[in-house]
Amino acid sequence: MGYPWIFCLSLCLVIAACNGPKKADPITDCELAEELYERHGRQGSHRSQIYLDSAIKLCPSLAKAWREISVPYLKRGDYATWSHYMDRAVELEPAHYLNVRGWCKIKFLHDYEGGLDDLLRYDQLIESDLKIAGEYNLYTWMAFAKLGLGDSLAALEYFNKSIESALAKGEEWIGQYDYLYRGILKLELKNYDGAMQDFDEQIRLYDKLADVHYYKGLTWQRMGQGSKAQAALRRAHQLFTDEGNHISDPYVEMPWEIYLEDIDSLLSFRR
């Protein structure tokens, strides 16, 4: 991505600026960079990357351009290039991008220590009753990091903190899958009653998620309740294949993600 692009794009914007409303002062490089950022187009396209690269060269302090140009590399699995751009965005505006880098490290790179460090720094930096990182509560990502590091009890504390911080603001702020995730962890810790309570809460909030019925069936099975387990698993199968949905991600396998084979395997189980 060379400098001739900057010249051509800048010239076009200067001409547009001259033909538009008159400014008291000449347009600056950073103002041109903002124009390029606003016009960069579809994320990951050749045009987008050229515009963003040109914006960065014109105004190296434009953090949002550093962050935006990094995203396609993350989605394509080029984590080294993503990190090159994302690290600069964090350096320029840590209050805006530490949380982004943190959850991306955890989700995509499985860099649990690095991601947790970013989120802890962000947590100390930002004063807010409820902190969101990507599609989850900040503390849910911290729980995933602790799971990746093999510390289930610390993960449980973070899941608790995620739900408690959301409830303090209102039930509608609870993460879409927070009760499910905490319930699965309780299941792994053999707290079957606690797991059931969380699964029932998840079902109360949204009953067409195949995953929660699968894990409820697994819990019934562990408790020796074969008929109840089979009923829950049949519901999971119905939702997975027909009227409901299940947790999935187009880029990575999510924690405790289930597949139809998992459900079928348990449905064939007889106690």
Main attributes?
single chain, about 270 residues, mainly alpha, Serine Threonine Protein Phosphatase 5, Tetratricopeptide repeat, two-stranded antiparallel sheet, 2 strands
What does this structure look like?
The chain is mainly alpha-helical and 271 residues long. It has a domain at 176-271: Tetratricopeptide repeat domain (Serine Threonine Protein Phosphatase 5, Tetratricopeptide repeat). The protein has 14 helices and two strands. The protein has helices at 3-19, 29-38, 46-58, 63-76, 79-92, 94-109, 112-125, 138-148, 152-169, 178-188, 192-205, 210-222, 226-243, 260-267, and strands spanning 132-133, 136-137. It has a two-stranded antiparallel ribbon. Strand 1 (132-133) and strand 2 (136-137) form a beta hairpin. The chain is elongated, with a radius of gyration of 24 Å. The model is unreliable at 14-20 (pLDDT under 50).
